[in-house]
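Researcher: Here's the sequence for the chain we discussed earlier.
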Amino acid sequence: MSEFILAVDKVYFGDAGGTPNNDLGKTKGGVIFRQTRPTEVEIDNDQDVEPEMIISTKLRREMEINLADCALANLELLFNGTVGEAPDDNILTLPDEVSEGVTKSLKLVTKTLNGVKYEIELSRARIRPEGEINVNNDGNAVVRLMVVSLASESVKAKLTLDNAAPGSNSAVHFTAVDAGPDGNEITVTFVNPGAGDNALDVTVSDTDITVSLETDDGELVSTALEVAAAVNADDDAKLLVTAMAAGNGSTVVEAHAETALAGGATFAAPKLTKVTV
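Model: Thanks. This is the structure I predict for it:
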């Protein structure tokens, strides 16, 4: 294992893929960067002298951040915890799943030297507390965080439309065809065309998908399965989304106002920026 210490002054965090602008405070002793050595695993065959295969494990890179002056309110936000009410406002309760880490964006700002500082930004990192969290006389926390940078990737936007009284077969799930934030611009609307007999129809305008539901003498009859199939069969809609019904999709769906897909994002590779002060 190799490691080095970087003179980091401030640490910021935000939502994964977002801007890390929440101040976690100053570090104590900088930030320790560690990299494990790759290891090799041999797959042997009793009939051969040489191994059939050699598998190399990936390098693991992690950071140890020792925070000396972290506001409990920011730790509460980082780990979805709870700070107690006075007189217990120096007690931070963290959920059990925090031991596995939370996924956030992170920015490290080095100390200024000769008029220059550096900003290291991770768009997606897993962060977990290590050991005890101690509170100093100012009511701030002294805590050690372990950070692992996660691989850069793009995530597809998604949407689920379900009935007011949802069932196991009533929802329609939509997933953007292309990954990234552009998928968040796609909208889906289920329209009740009203009285009379109306056929199920799908129309697309730019990134807006409208599904006009089938009616029989004014009564809605389109099932989740039928709606999903109609969207997937439409030449324009299928370029934007794929649709899937929940369960067997046998439940008749209801009208829904225009709703946008959400969650599409691109998580960039770690970025190093030189800042002249």
